[in-house]
Design a protein that fits this description.
The complex is a heterotrimer of chains A (about 240), B (about 325) and C (about 300). The N and C termini of chain A lie far apart (about 35 Å). The model of chain A has no long low-confidence stretch (mean pLDDT about 90). The relative contact order of chain A is 0.18. In chain A, the strands form 2 sheets. A 6-stranded mixed β-sheet of chain A has the order 6-7-8-3-9-10, with helices on both faces. Chain A has a 4-stranded antiparallel β-sheet with strand order 2-1-4-5, with helices on one face. Helices cover about 40% and strands about 25% of the residues of chain A. In chain A, helix 4 (about 110-120) runs antiparallel to helix 6 (about 140-150) and helix 6 packs parallel to helix 7. Chain A has helices spanning about 40-50, 70-75, 95-100, 110-120, 125, 140-150, 170-185, 195-200, 220-225, 225-235; strands at about 1-10, 15-25, 30-35, 55-60, 65, 80, 155-160, 190-195, 205-210, 215-220. Chain A has about 240 residues and is α/β, with parallel strands linked by helices. Chain A contains 10 helices and 10 strands. Chain B has a domain at about 25-245. Chain B has 13 helices and 2 strands. In chain B, strands 1-2 form a two-stranded antiparallel ribbon. The longest helix of chain B has 27 residues, at about 210-235. With about 300 residues, chain C is mainly alpha-helical. The chains are: A alpha/beta (about 240), B mainly alpha (about 325), C mainly alpha (about 300). Chains in contact: A-C, B-C.
């Protein structure tokens, strides 16, 4: 049970967005994928969830080949991607936004059970179930996006910049709930973040991308302590 | 490869050579072909006006038939009421259509994609019926638009159709030359910027609404001119001459030409004129049933259109360029 | 006073048929962001299927559902074979804004030619299954006949069914989610491609019903060059745009508004101004609200 990536490359035309990347995340681990703007983090994540096509290489989640399936199929194999920003559908209500995460299971009863679980985790959403999603605050929208993902009972969570555009205090809350939720449910997480320090603090391992290639990998705590990494990627 | 730099002078020379070639051609083919030549020239003007609007400024119009109608009526009214010479009538057509185009453009600049398509479609459906409402527009019968016999110095054998063709071809050449220069000027660049990167263009200080209205106005002027030429070739203007299908045919022609390449416009125009004819020939050759012969032309035009949009979406000229650069 | 009532009834009947057409345009717009001008051709083809059924079994009541099913199947087929190719090839550059419009116009021509080939270009007649003679009150004749009553009832029923599907079922939720945000929907596990095809199928069924009802409401004549269907297309589309293109309720409101305004102009002003009225109405609505009466999205850019 692990996420296993070997020699993965993704090209946009002539640009090598991701270049020969290999790493491994064990079941239940939280891995932070960090790096500067344009380092290829989002491209890598989108490739793992089937939105982008890989040029070559391998990517497996357990027995599932991540490079051969469409995103809607990967959800059925327990892989859930929460895309960049507050990825909710503003025109739908909070409840509907949550429900679409479980539509594929075609089971009304399970859907209700999952909905209750998510509402228990995020009581703020429970209070606003019938409101349209565009009435939510930034932090609440991020919770909603996470909640929708949990509705599909994921085993591997691909999170793209959950902190984007949120106030520092809210970022801390979001990171903490990501950490708590996933560790209590045994979900494996690949977290892409611009906010490198925040991400490494909650992560088990860290992967630093630079211009599409891996610069450093290692235990998150070791990366934070490494003066070179601090200087180059953490900004102090 | 050394590329010949096209200057204004060489381009003008090119147009003059093309004119001479057409002149030679008009003396060698039969009357029907000459008449069809005039229709091709009309389509060239009308399709260029769509290319200017859609390919350059990125706006959609399904109602250009209505603007052609405005031009046709304008030309006929000026000709009939003031006995004006033909070129004055044509200029009147341009100005009148451009005026309405500016009004429409001011509305259009607020609308995007499907809303604009809907508005212009409604215009094409609605406008021709206005003619029935006002007496001075002549109702269903419309107005006569008679440009008179060819001048005597052209000789006895010089037919009316040839005269139509000469006027139409000359008008088309002048219009194309003007448009070509316009599109190579700063305006052309501005329109392209607005079409492809509207946000960036706005940040760079381009007034998007004004640029779109200008494009609509000029495009309408060209359409009006095409309408005047069309009315000339059929000697009348009536609501029936500008059906919805004309607007659709122009859009078709623009796609067949390649919406961003003015050079392809002749291909689209010739195709529009030739297809019904070819279909007719094919149908008679096969000697099929009546149902088949009546419906084959429509089938071929539609089929061609679909194939063009699916497989040569940017037009034959762009497609060739792409192949060559590979 | 009586004329007023009759004008109102005529407007409501016409408007309810336009609303089916407008709904089918909205359904396609929502699922693939394409304005489908071939919708009138699809409606016509479905109506010809209906005509064949009437010819064989002599029953409008079998023909109506058959026409709707046929419309659904043909529309789904077009989406599967044709629209997917189109989106793949022509989604970039200047052509992207007009390619779908042009392509569906091409389809319209293709369908008409095919109809002409199989059924000929002369009129065929679909007899109205119910009386088209208006009810009478005293000496006055109402512009409401058994047929018109059925048309209004049928449209109301279909709109209710569609609303139920969209608001209360999982399929409806998937349809709405895919329309607003295809990528998020895909990541949530919705098979967006399949949902699109279903959207087209629903649109095809609505179009088929519109065609059958329109033909029975008029003089029953049906031909590939039928003016009735051109009007159905133009007015259905205008109604959808007035309503905002994204909203089913908007489509119904737009269509009823258009039907009523046109009926009043026809009665009190004159027939030749009907078309230009549609244009002016559209223009006025769009100038006040550039996104239509019911636009669900706050003006978003880039």
């Amino acid at each position: 049970m692990s996420l296993f990536i070997e020699n993965l490359s993704v090209h946009h035309g002539a640009i090598h967005a991701v270049n020969n990347v290999s790493f491994k995340v064990e079941k239940g681990q939280l891995a932070a994928l960090i790096g500067a703007n344009g380092a290829g983090k989002t491209t890598l994540l989108r490739t793992l969830s089937g939105l982008n096509k890989a040029t070559h290489g391998k990517a497996h989640w357990n027995e599932t080949n991540l490079l051969h399936e469409k995103p809607e199929q990967l959800v059925r194999h327990g892989v859930s991607h929460v895309s960049e920003g507050k990825s909710v559908i503003p025109e739908l209500t909070v409840k509907e936004n949550l429900e679409i995460g479980a539509l594929w299971r075609r089971n009304k009863k399970e859907m209700v059970v999952s909905l209750n679980e998510v509402v228990e985790l995020f009581p703020r959403l429970g209070e606003r179930l019938e409101q349209r999603a565009d009435t939510l605050s930034g932090g609440e929208r991020q919770m909603l996006a996470l909640g929708r993902s949990l509705m599909s009972k994921p085993q591997l969570l691909l999170l793209d910049e959950p902190s984007l555009g949120l106030a520092p205090l809210v970022v801390e809350q979001i990171f903490q709930s990501i950490k708590d939720l996933t560790s209590s449910m045994g979900i494996t997480v690949l977290l892409v973040e611009q906010n490198a320090m925040g991400a490494l603090k909650i992560a088990d391992i860290g992967i630093v991308l630079n211009l599409g290639s891996i610069a450093v990998t290692g235990d998150a705590s070791a990366l934070i302590a490494d003066p070179q990494v601090r200087a180059a990627y953490l900004g102090y | 490869m050394h590329k010949l730099k096209a200057t204004n002078a060489t381009r003008l020379l090119g147009f003059i050579l093309l004119g001479l070639f057409l002149f030679y051609l008009s003396n060698t083919v039969d009357e029907l072909r000459v008449y069809q030549g005039a229709t091709v020239a009309m389509y060239v003007i009308a399709i260029s006006s769509i290319i200017l609007l859609t390919g350059y400024s990125g706006q959609v119009s399904l109602g250009h038939g209505a603007l052609l109608a405005i031009g046709g009526y304008g030309a006929a009214l000026v000709r009939n009421n003031f006995n004006a010479p033909i070129w004055i009538a044509f200029i009147a057509a341009i100005l009148l259509a451009a005026f309405w185009g500016a009004l429409l453009g001011a509305t259009a600049a607020r609308l995007s994609g499907p809303y604009l398509a809907g508005t212009t479609l409604a215009l094409a459906v609605g406008l021709p019926s206005i003619a029935n409402q006002f007496k001075f527009l002549g109702g269903e019968q419309g107005l006569i638009f008679d440009i008179g016999l060819p001048p005597a110095w052209l000789g006895q054998t010089f037919s009316q159709y040839k005269w139509f063709f000469w006027i139409a071809a000359l008008t088309a050449l002048i219009a194309m030359w003007w448009l070509q220069n316009l599109l190579r000027s700063g305006y052309g660049r501005t329109w392209r910027a607005v079409r492809t990167q509207s946000v960036a263009a706005e940040l760079a200080g381009i007034n998007i609404a004004r640029s779109k209205i200008l494009a609509f106005t000029l495009s309408a002027g060209l359409a009006g001119l095409a309408g005047a030429v069309l009315s000339m070739t059929i000697s009348t203007v009536s609501p029936g001459a500008f059906p919805l299908s004309l607007s659709f045919a122009l859009a078709t022609g623009a796609v067949l030409s390649g919406v961003t390449t003015l050079g392809g416009v002749i291909i689209g125009s010739v195709t529009l004129v030739a297809i019904p004819e070819i279909a007719d020939v094919v149908a008679h050759q096969v000697g099929a049933s009546e149902n088949a012969t009546t419906n084959l032309p429509g089938l071929m035009v539609s089929g061609l259109l679909i194939v063009a949009v699916l497989f040569v979406p940017n037009g034959p000229v762009e497609q060739l360029k792409k192949k060559r650069s590979k | 006073m009586f004329q007023l009532l009759n004008t109102f009834l005529i407007g409501i009947t016409a408007g309810s048929i336009y609303s089916l057409m407008a709904i089918s345009m909205v359904l396609v717009w929502r699922s693939t962001r394409v304005v489908n001008f071939a919708q009138a051709g699809l409606a016509m083809l479905s109506t010809y299927f209906g005509y064949e059924i009437i010819h064989r079994f002599d029953s409008y009541w079998i023909a109506l559902p058959v026409a709707m099913i046929a419309g659904a199947l043909v529309a789904a087929g077009i989406e599967l074979i044709f629209m997917r190719l189109l989106l793949k090839h022509s989604s970039q550059g200047a052509i992207a804004s007009i390619a779908p419009i042009i392509a569906t116009l091409g389809l319209l021509g293709l369908i008409k030619s095919i109809i002409g080939y199989f059924w000929g270009n002369q009129d065929v007649i679909i007899e109205s299954p119910l009386s088209n003679v208006g009810f009478t009150i005293g000496t006055q004749t109402l512009a409401l006949s058994p047929m018109k009553t059925f048309i209004i009832a049928a449209v109301v029923f279909m709109v209710l069914v569609l609303t139920f599907i969209f608001q209360r079922t999982n399929l409806g939720l998937a349809l709405r989610a895919s329309a607003y945000a295809p990528e998020i929907s895909r990541l949530a596990g919705i098979k967006v491609d399949l949902v699109r095809t279903v959207g087209w199928a629903l649109a095809g069924a609505a179009g088929g019903a519109a065609g059958m009802l329109q033909t029975a409401n008029g003089n029953g004549a049906l031909s590939p060059d039928s003016l009735e269907f051109s009007l159905l297309l133009a007015f259905g589309f205008i109604a959808a745009v007035i309503g905002g293109l994204d909203s089913l309720i908007g489509a119904v409101i737009g269509a009823l508004l258009l039907g009523l305004v046109l009926a009043f102009v026809l009665t009190y002003v004159g027939g030749s101004l009907v078309f230009i009225t549609a244009f002016v109405l559209l223009l006025v609505v769009l100038l006040i609200r550039p996104g239509g009466l019911i636009s669900q999205k706050a003006g978003r850019r880039a």
